Amino acid sequence: MSSFLRLGAGLAALLVTACGAPAPAAPAGPQPIRAPSPSRVTAEAAERVGADELGRVPILMYHRIVAEPRSVYDRGPADFRAELERLAAEDYIPVTTSDLVTGKLDLPAGTHPVVLTFDDGDPSVFALTPEGEPAPGTAVRILLDVAVAHPRFRPVASFYVNENPFGGDERALRWLSEHHFEIGNHTAQHTNLRRAGESAATAAIAEGDALIRRAVPGYQPATLALPYGARPRRGELALRGPGYSYGGVLLVGAGPAPSPCSPEFDPAAIPRIRSQGAGKEAEYGSAHWLDELGSAAGRRYTADGDPATVSYPRSGPEPAPSCASVSLAY
User: Fold this and answer.
1) Does 113 map to a domain?
2) How far is Cα of residue 293 from the mean position of the Cα atoms in its chain?
3) What is the DSSP letter of 57?
4) Which one has a higher pLDDT value, 24 or 155?
5) Angle at 207 between CA 125 and CA 198, to 5 degrees
6) Is residue 322 part of a domain?
7) Which pLDDT score is estimated for 39?
8) How far apart are CA 239 and CA 220, in angstroms?
9) Which residue among 227, 246, 287, 314 has its CA within the 20 to 30 Å range from the CA of 160?
10) How many CB atoms lie within 10 A of CB 105?
11) How many domains does the structure of the chain reveal?
12) Of 38, 41, 34, 44, residue with least CA distance to 13
């Protein structure tokens, strides 16, 4: 946490608190965040970019990228590219789910985190050519191409897989790991964990976790996306149980996620936004929420440029205890 001098009346009120990154293990939840010293950000700089690191974060949910979408869970390649181009133009920078839940949000001042998540391991999302390159037209190929055109737009995402992901190509998960994408658990059989008994639910999660670790030796999944968004009857079982431990659990949801330093953040129930433009149930889709987050009242997460601090307007809520120790309002 860094303290700031009182700069006089009339300035917008800001608090800046420390937020470092915990160790890269797979904790059961976000860990207390260390406070490097001295801090580099100033209150003037945080105010100038409108920093609000207690603001909301869009976690976008995708399933298939297909030429002829058949449901609200499908997107066409052109629509998908257009959404990525919009995110880049609006100063969003992709981070993984694991980055979010651990507070590893090292972003340039004035930019906003976005998490791109892909469920079910469909080949339209990722497939490799015989030469071992991302296949044309897949989500990963499109993401990489957009990142080339917009160098600040990181080509990272989180993939939540079931049994035989990406058409059963054994190379796929290793490629994703080697290229710094996150691989998360979605249970091997896409199990409805709410309907399953307690032992069946934990077994389903452990089976999916083991599947990933067998495919990518040494890799430890850090987050889980709930099939159907259905939580076990005891919600904490999604975070940890025999054979697994996670820092965050994703719902299906229909709205932005709180900042990991917000008192509203619940690592066992992190909401997502369905990637969708106009059409049926558009009010739950990404086009609607990106419009709202970009509005004056959107309260979206805006970085201060210093990963060692959490900067936020005094008019908003104070940070969660894991992110706060000392602060000075002015």
Assistant:
1) yes
2) 16
3) B
4) 155
5) 115
6) no
7) 54
8) 14
9) 287
10) 23
11) 1
12) 44
Helices (H) and strands (E) in the chain, counts: 7, 14
DSSP H helical ranges for the chain: 43-48, 77-89, 97-102, 139-149, 171-178, 198-215, 286-293
0.85 exceeded by pTM: yes
Range of the domain at 108: 54-298
Count CB atoms within 10 A of the CB of residue 142.
20
Greater pLDDT, 220 or 26: 220
Count Cβ neighbours within 10 Å for each residue of 280-301 and write b for 16 or more, e otherwise. eeeebbbbbbbebbeeeebbbb
Residue 213 is assigned to a structural domain of this protein: yes
Both tokens of 315, joined, read: 């008019």
Please compute Rg for the chain using Cα positions.
20
Closest CA to 25 of 266, 246, 240: 246
Contact 109, 71 (CB under 8 A): no
Alpha helices in 62-197 (DSSP H): 77-89, 97-102, 139-149, 171-178
- pLDDT, tens digit, for every residue of 162-194? 999 999 999 999 999 999 999 999 999 999 999
Cβ neighbour number for residue 171 with a 10 Å cutoff: 13
- Residue 202: CB atoms within 10 Å: 21
- Rounded CA-CA distance 80/277 in Å is 10
- Residue 43 corresponds to which tokens in the numbers above? 């209150």
Domain CATH code at residue 236: 3.20.20.370
Closest by Cα among 312, 147, 315, 146 to 324:
312
